[in-house]
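Field: sequence (string)
Field: structure_tokens (string)

Example rows 1 and 2, in order.
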Amino acid sequence: MSLILGLLLFILLLLAVPLGLEFQFSRYGTLEGHVRIRWAFGLLRFELPISGEGETQPDQLKGIDLKGGAPPIRLITRLWRALEIRDLHLYLRLGLEDPADTGRLWGLFGPLSGMLYACADTEVDLVPEFMQPCLEFEAAGEIRVVPLRIIAILIGERLSFMMRS
């Protein structure tokens, strides 16, 4: 019994160690970039190169449906607060085939850009393209998160959902 308790405590301790993510992406035709993951204060680290094959054609942006249900705002807010964002640089130019759909999409991105501006050391440039379908972006930054905090938020959200049902 004490062995199981000790093992559980050890796992909880490991999950309480911060995880660092450094990323840099760009997409002008093809996706390129990398993600560096650091854990245990840099003792464990590795890099994942990201590269996309081929281009996204304008036809592929036609099927985006914006008529789905509302996102779980409370869960998104709690997860957002659990992240420690440092040096975020984001440029996004996005357009859908229908200008009305582009406007609806930017109605969703507007509050997101406000949340990003509230973080220290952020540079955000969101540009809608109403004339033609397109997707171009550059993103770079560093995010630090404690996995145990994310797990606690997800468990709490699940329990509150079960209590409401």
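Row 2 begins here:
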Amino acid sequence: MEQCSGCFDSIIAVPAANRVRGAHPPPRGDPHALSHTRLQHRPTSPGPPDPAAPVIAVNHTAAPSFGILTAPQHVSYQDILRVWREADAIDTIDHAWLFDHLMPIASDREGPIFEGWTLLSALAAQTERLRLGLMVSSNRFRPPAMLAKIAATVDVVSGGRLEFGIGAGSRPSHPGARGEYDAHGLPYDDAAHAVGSLAEAVTIVRRLWTADRPFDFDGRYHQLTGAWCNPKPI
């Protein structure tokens, strides 16, 4: 599994192996919108980047690759599965993505939309070659330890093909962003809280995937006792 993290205001990409596979940006208007065209730290305030921020150097000389992004809204599971299976059979398509929303972000707000990680696991089981992921998972939706377990499960199901992406969550400036949080009883803290929580979440997820024994974590935004993830990602 390779990893990248991104959000509206902090980290654009953090690959595990100094490489990020090229990806198309999400649909215009997506409040989680993320561009992978620049792989660098985006400071949350004027001045130099925080040296403690979880940023990893990126190999900018890697050859570009190509993938697809299918919005899991206003569409049937069978239609998405058909597109992913067709892409899986085309060697020039290297990866496939979903987005992470709980309510549609376009057209009918009361229309159908699939939960991203659940759908991704189903598609992982039905494909063989494509690398796959969410662009990107909202850190506001799931506690980081739970997200680490979910992602590890998808990676095992896929045979190690997961590209892990995580972001701070919806931009507060987007007019429809808050609705899906209120509708699901999820907190919607300010941007500073969201970015600080993301930094701790990245640390927690990495430790859960690499620790050889349970550990405690006492952060400003997250506290864990006896945290442990087994099985690990491939």
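free_text_note (row 2): Strands lie at 2-5, 67-69, 95-98, 131-134, 137-138, 163-167, 215-218, 223-227.
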